[in-house]
Amino acid sequence: MIAIQSKLPHTGTTIFTVMSKLAEEHQAINLSQGFPDYECDEKLIGFVSEAMRKGFNQYAPMSGLAELRSVIAEKVNLLYGANYHPESEVTVTAGGTQAIFTALSACIHPGDEVIIFEPAYDSYAPAVKLLGGLVKSYELAPPNYDIDWEMVKKLFTVKTKMIILNSPQNPTGCILSEKDIKALIKLTKNTDVLILSDEVYEHIIFDGHKHQSVALYPELYERSFIVASFGKLLHTTGWKLGYCLAPENLMKEFRKVHQYNVFSVNTPMQIGIARYLKDPETYQHLSSFFQQKRDLFRTLMAETKFKLLPCHGSYFQCVSYEHINQEKDTDMAVKLIKEYGVASIPVSAFYMRNNDHHVLRFCFAKKQETLEKAVERLTKL
Ligand code: PMP
Ligand code: GLN
Questions:
Q1: Residue 356 has pLDDT above 90, yes or no
Q2: pLDDT at residue 271 above 90?
Q3: Mind listing the pLDDT tens digit for each residue in 233-258?
Q4: Handedness of CA 75, 86, 123, 263 (dihedral sign)
Q5: Closest by Cα among 74, 52, 54, 56 to 65
Q6: SS (H, E, C) 271-311
Q7: What is the pTM of this model?
């Protein structure tokens, strides 16, 4: 065996893979990894297969299909009033994950500090570390995971290169408010600090709240990469398509990396999605669609012993069980799979340091009967 020096010695297999595999092994209902268990729109499948049949099966342009980049720019303009130039400021990516990794690769030099809010989506910290960057994490606590911007200010040093935002947030379902963004604008003003705004759940926001996209704020434009995912938008997480928005000078650096880590992404799907998204109706109903699922899941879960935490967006509901027992959340998640037949995600997986929060995350992007069956099992606890 040839020994290699690990670049990520403290990183194991992602929790999503671990829990989904365990769920499969024990035939548990899988509310762990975030993906829908229902089909996407037949019309979209029709558009994609038509593109395949018509022979659009070779490389797409490096930055993405022009029609798709135009549709994205129109959507961003319609929703947030921002003008991203489709030619130079929009790039189609192999999902949000690649957009995040590519943006970080384009900007982070060894020794650069990146501020993240924990619990944080699990790809951020390893990506920063791979690039020789230092993660400065701000650990937020349940039930509300509020951000104290004075604390964020304390994390700023001369080495601060970037701050990663994620609203609606995975795993907490929390959202940034206008007040949060105003604090961020004040904090970053007259600095060179960049923002990576992971907005993959932009269309999944509840109770009439308005998504606080960075694209709404011209003050943040020059320093921001915005990441989006067609997986969430179209119920097609397996297609692994998304995009990144950034001002031209940042996008130029992004594309230098993008061209060598993927070059370009799936042509027929880009054609199908461009055609499909021409009608804004395809995404305007998404919040109410998911709000119904959230409401159903919360109503059902109210009959269990779990305590529901607030959920304002994303397709995740977190619950606390600290009043039930003091088991570690990783143990509790395994117990729920093995003894009750329901898979969840232990929220400690989204922190770098150990904690004793006793919080689990459930994905409610599932059919009504899946949610009913899962909660019926959970009521036995
Ligand atoms: N960011 C967050 C917060 C996510 O939850 C996910 C995926 N679930 C991604 C990024 C990655 O998106 P994609 O699946 O398009 O790579
Ligand atoms: N984003 C999804 C989640 O949070 C899963 C993504 C993945 O499996 N990498 O569950």
A1: no
A2: yes
A3: 999 999 999 999 999 999 999 999 99
A4: positive
A5: 56
A6: HHHHHHCCCCHHHHCHHHHHHHHHHHHHHHHCCCCCEECCC
A7: 0.97
How many beta carbons lie within 10 A of that of residue 81, not counting itself? 11
Give the number of whichever ligand sits closest to the CA of residue 99.
Answer: 1
**How far is Cα of residue 376 from the mean position of the Cα atoms in its chain?**
28
103: Cβ below 6 Å to ligand 1?
A: no
- pLDDT at residue 95 in the model: 98
Enter the tokens of residue 104: 């970080």
CA separation for the pair 117, 136 (Å, rounded): 9
CA 55 to ligand 2 centroid distance, Å: 32
State the pairing for strand pair 29-30/160-166: unpaired
Nearest ligand to the C-alpha of residue 31? 2
> Does ligand 2 lie within 6 Å of residue 231's CB atom?
no
pLDDT bin (cut points 50, 70, 90) of residue 125 is very high
- According to the model, what pLDDT value does residue 37 have? 97
Site to substitute for ligand 1 among 17, 19, 170, most atoms within 8 A of C-beta: 170
CA of residue 314 to ligand 2 center, whole Å:
12
Residues 6+ apart with CB under 8 A from 135: 113, 114, 116, 124, 125, 128, 129, 352
For the chain, domains (ranges, CATH) are 15-40+284-378 (3.90.1150.10), 42-282 (3.40.640.10)
Closest CA to 265 of 228, 238, 239, 235: 239
